[in-house]
Amino acid sequence: MVSGCTTLLICFAKSALGVVDSHRWVGPLIACCIGYVLSDLASGIYHWGIDNYGSAKTLVFGNQIDAFQHHHKHPWIITKSQFAKNHRILAGGVTFIVLPINLLCKDPTILAFIGAFSGCIMFSQQFHTWAHGTKNKLPKIVLALQDVGILVSRSQHVAHHRLPYNNNYCLVSGLWNNFLDGYKVFELLERIFFFIFGAQPRSWSGLDLEWTEEIETQSLCDSQY
Ligand SMILES: [Zn+2]
Ligand SMILES: [Zn+2]
Fold first, then answer.
1. What is the pLDDT of residue 70?
2. C-alpha span between 30 and 26 (Å, rounded)
3. Biggest alpha carbon distance in the chain?
4. 19 alpha carbon to ligand 2 midpoint, in Å?
5. 10 C-alpha vs ligand 1 centroid, how far in Å?
6. How far apart are CA 26 and CA 5, in angstroms?
7. For 23-123, where are the alpha helices, taking DSSP H only?
8. CA-based nearest residue to 36, from 140, 170, 143, 179
9. Is the distance from CB of 168 to CB of 177 less than 8 angstroms?
10. Long-range contacts made by residues 209-214, C-beta under 8 angstroms, separation at least 24?
11. Is there a cis peptide before residue 164, judged by omega within 30 degrees of 0?
12. How far is the CA of 16 from the centre of ligand 2 (A)?
């Protein structure tokens, strides 16, 4: 986690120094916004893939697939997990990918994009955890950011944990959920994957039995939204 945060700080500091040198800040600012918007889309695609394909034995992603399956069986445990534990894998990924970019890239606009995108991805599990929080326990600033749609809302994410378990995959702001679900983008991808590879997504079968274990707990928490 420390390495991930340090990597992000270097990325933003290098971008800020570039802005000071060039006196051009509009490009990096727009790049930051684009990075934030696209990170939500990326979080949705990744979450959809992890939820629907592979198993605990899958190379590289096995641990994440297993953790997300566990999360669907026991959604509220995420609020009890330690901060560092929730972010360890994503922070490692950010360090591995962004550190070399920090060393090689000097363009403040590209660095601003990379910093915002990878930062939002790295903290997406925290945004996810807050989406499972109850109103009276979340900090006021988090509630306000959720209410205006800057962070994924509690009501939007709780829909992901309800039947038919095939929507609202995005975990940063939830901006893309309406588009992806409205145009049935993931359903189309699932059909293409099935046609080409013969791979059935988990959402097509059996989840109503596997993922409803804590439905009563969930309903109790929903009453506080
Ligand atoms: Zn999920
Ligand atoms: Zn969740």
1. 87
2. 6
3. 59
4. 38
5. 32
6. 25
7. 26-52, 62-73, 83-104, 108-122
8. 170
9. yes
10. 210/72, 210/73, 211/72, 211/73, 211/161, 211/165, 212/163, 213/73, 213/74, 214/73, 214/74, 214/75, 214/76
11. yes
12. 34
Question: pLDDT band for position 82 (50/70/90)?
Answer: low
Please name the residue that has the structure tokens 């900090």: 139
Provide CB contacts within 8 A for 182, sequence distance 6+.
none
Going from the Cα of 157 to the center of ligand 1, the distance in angstroms, rounded, reads 9
**pLDDT top residue among 39 and 162:** 39
Which residue do the tokens 């390495």 mark?
Answer: 3
Boundaries of every domain in the chain: 2-222
User: Which residue type does 139 have?
Assistant: P
Residues 6+ positions from 31 with CB-CB distance below 8 Å = 109, 110, 112, 113, 116
pLDDT digits (tens, 9 = 90+) for 15-69: 989 888 888 889 999 999 999 999 999 999 999 999 999 999 999 888 889 888 8
Mean pLDDT across the chain: 87
Q: Which two tokens stand for residue 79?
A: 């609020």
- Of 61, 80, 59, 60, the residue nearest 69 (C-alpha): 61
Centroid of ligand 2 to alpha carbon of 59 (angstroms): 23
Ligand 1 mean position, distance from CA 189 (Å) = 17
More confident residue, 116 or 210: 116
Distance 75 CA to ligand 2 centre (A): 6
Please answer whether residues 116 and 110 qualify as being in contact, where contact means their C-beta atoms are separated by less than 8 angstroms. no
